[in-house]
Write a structure and sequence with these properties.
eight-stranded mixed sheet, elongated, single chain, 8 strands, 313 residues, alpha/beta
Length: 313
């Protein structure tokens, strides 16, 4: 039997924590009875700088429930960093770790399948969404578009996989050697290269409250995922610049012809349109390059990803 740990980042999740702990406890007890996991398995809740009673509830659950452990981050570090903090701390406690959001919208019935795949020799098991009907329409559409854009940019990732996955201690030790600060775990973990497989994940409705992953945060994660693993946007700027030079050459030929035949007429509209068009392209190009330079700036500082204020083990 393996010692299993689930790691769940929590940000203002006081409305769902107790319900989630009850569901995971029932699952753990069933898996222990089936001989899948050892009785000293655990669920680890990572408080990511919540401003409500999330940490107080984790403390209470730790006192009441033998499976519950807690990690309290000193400040809000962000979803990806909170997952990393939980995994890096819990890898010394367990043989394998399953990361799953605290709202348990991912299908927890996949966890026994993940454990079986792990015992069959897989170091990483990805939960792949086969149904997103519980997600809002806009979120479903933007998610699908992002996965396709990601693939076109050459980012290696598992299609329709978020952050619901099992990783062995060996895989976690390898992940710990990656020192980058712009974390995008969905693109980073496939680079480890160990044996992996997938399970089907059906998303369900939240028990209570609302998702803390706002549209702005999702767009930020998408931008980070592309710029952290692909330089294709930089090449796209270069090739688009060549197209602009070709257009400029054609315009120069046209202007020379019009001057020779005497048909040249001053055009205010075309001039202004050209200025705005080229100006917008230049500013967009500078913005894309600025994103890459900004990431270099963050990386070279080598600041810690997170600080742990307290651990309930």
């Amino acid at each position: 039997m393996i010692k299993l740990a689930t790691v769940s980042p929590c940000y203002n999740e006081e409305e769902v924590l107790r319900h989630s702990a009850e569901r995971l406890t029932a699952l753990f007890e069933r898996m222990i009875a089936d001989g899948l996991i050892s009785p000293d398995s655990m669920m680890v809740f990572v408080n990511d700088g919540s401003r409500d009673r999330t940490w107080d509830i984790i403390r209470e659950l730790h006192a009441e429930n033998r499976f519950v452990r807690g990690i309290n981050l000193a400040r809000n570090a962000g979803h990806q960093n909170a997952i990393m903090a939980g995994m890096m701390t819990a890898r010394d406690w367990a043989d394998a770790i399953v990361t799953i959001d605290a709202d348990l919208q991912d299908d927890i019935e996949c966890i026994p399948q993940m454990v079986r795949h792990f015992t069959d020799g897989n170091d990483i098991v990805y939960g792949v969404k086969v149904s997103r009907q519980a997600d809002p329409l806009v979120k479903r559409m933007t998610a699908q578009a992002f996965y396709k854009l990601q693939n076109s940019m050459g980012v290696e990732s598992v299609y329709n996989h978020a952050d619901f996955r099992l990783m062995s201690r060996r895989a976690l030790d390898m992940l710990a050697t990656y020192k980058e600060h712009n974390l995008y775990l969905r693109g980073l973990i496939p680079q480890i290269g160990l044996r992996s497989t997938t399970v089907d994940d059906v998303i369900s409705e939240r028990y209570a409250g609302s998702s803390k992953y706002t549209l702005g945060k999702m767009l930020g994660l998408a931008l980070n995922g592309i710029t952290a693993f692909s330089v294709k946007p930089m090449y796209a700027i270069f090739y688009l610049g060549q197209v602009f030079l070709l257009i400029a050459l054609c315009i120069a030929v046209y202007v020379a012809h019009a001057w020779i035949v005497g048909t040249a007429v001053p055009g205010w509209s075309s001039l202004i349109l050209s200025i705005w068009f080229v100006g917008g392209f230049v500013l967009t190009s500078l913005g894309i390059m600025g994103v890459y330079i900004g990431k270099i700036y963050v990386e070279v500082k080598q600041r810690p990803l997170y600080h742990i204020a307290e651990v309930l083990a």
